[in-house]
């Protein structure tokens, strides 16, 4: 039996207070990446009390709930929410502020998990009216490398059953409540951490001819590396290489024996991602050698690019227009931020979209800041739209 848009809209409106309650509990009890024991236990309790089977302890603290429809055969799909918080001291002044000092849900993962719990309850109550299998992924460690997504895939947590597609959503503080945004194809950049150590013979700063100036070598290295994006990568390939940390523990009159640099590489092309890493090695090594120094280079493989399957994303965008109205669905720009959802998008047809959480009055704050404060009216949209997308995605 078909479940109508009006039914989903009404159900999302009805369940909103419960989803808000879920979100406030999670917000009050944030936990860092791969430490989400209390969070996972709370989510598992909510699932079990509603008779929803759940696998626990995946990738450490992750959970996957399984819903089976009873209205005949259908596809197997997956819906994903992340659970971890950030090492930030909250400054919102909310009555349900973090009780774990120095830890805060400053990226909306509390809203993601609460919304997916709401989706689970709606789908469970309608299970006699839809067919197929829906996997609900409550994922740990999105904020910390190697990312919970990569570990779940490595463990084979999505192999039996294996979803035909996966859908995820994320808060967007600049977007009004009730609005959502989609981007076909390349959407979010890969993210690699870059660590360089410039080594040489240190010494008295007043006698530069007797030493290797590691500070000068490090400064030239940073400047030279900026030419990679400007003059090596094609202008058609979005790329960012930034260094946010330089540490040389010398003094006003001491050149240190080493200077350490740390930065980030963001790319929208996997082939050029590899070529840029090779170029960083080449430039850092040769620039350091110019000053009689050596360069140790460590660039790990971070999160891959988030790629939204064109046909699936176009379909979901159209479904969102049907559910919310054409004027509420926006086209998103490329984002150079990274997300471990990219691991899923390398394996399954995927769509990762945004939903607006902007406050009508007062400051919403930015993601990853102590004052981030999402508009809880958005939870109704987040819960309802994902339910609507899931029900329609079950049909071949």
Task: Give a topology summary.
Layout lengths: L4 H24 L8 H13 L4 E5 L3 E9 L5 E7 L26 H17 L5 E9 L8 H8 L10 E11 L3 E3 L2 E4 L1 E10 L3 E2 L9 H19 L6 E9 L6 E2 L2 E10 L2 H21 L3 E6 L6 E3 L1 H15 L4 E3 L9 H5 L4 E9 L19 H16 L3
Parallel strand pairs: 3-4, 3-5, 5-16, 6-15
Antiparallel strand pairs: 1-2, 2-4, 6-16, 7-14, 8-12, 8-13, 9-11, 10-12
Helix pairs in contact: 1-3, 1-9, 3-9, 5-6, 7-9
Structural class, from secondary structure content?
Answer: alpha/beta
N-to-C SSE string, H for helix and E for strand: HHEEEHEHEEEEEHEEEHEEHEHEH
CATH names the topology of the largest domain as Aminopeptidase
**CATH architecture title of the largest domain:** 3-Layer(aba) Sandwich
Count structural domains: 2
What is the CATH class of the largest domain? Alpha Beta
Strand order of the largest sheet: 1-2-4-3-5-16-6-15
Gap from first CA to last CA: 16 Å
How many beta strands in the DSSP annotation? 16
- As residue ranges, the low-confidence spans are none
**Main beta sheet, described?**
8 strands, mixed
Roughly what fraction of the amino acids lie in strands? 25-35%
Tally the helices: what do you get?
9
Instruction: Tell me the radius of gyration.
Output: 24 Å
CATH homologous superfamily title of the largest domain: Zn peptidases
State mean pLDDT (0 to 100 scale).
97
Specify the overall morphology.
elongated
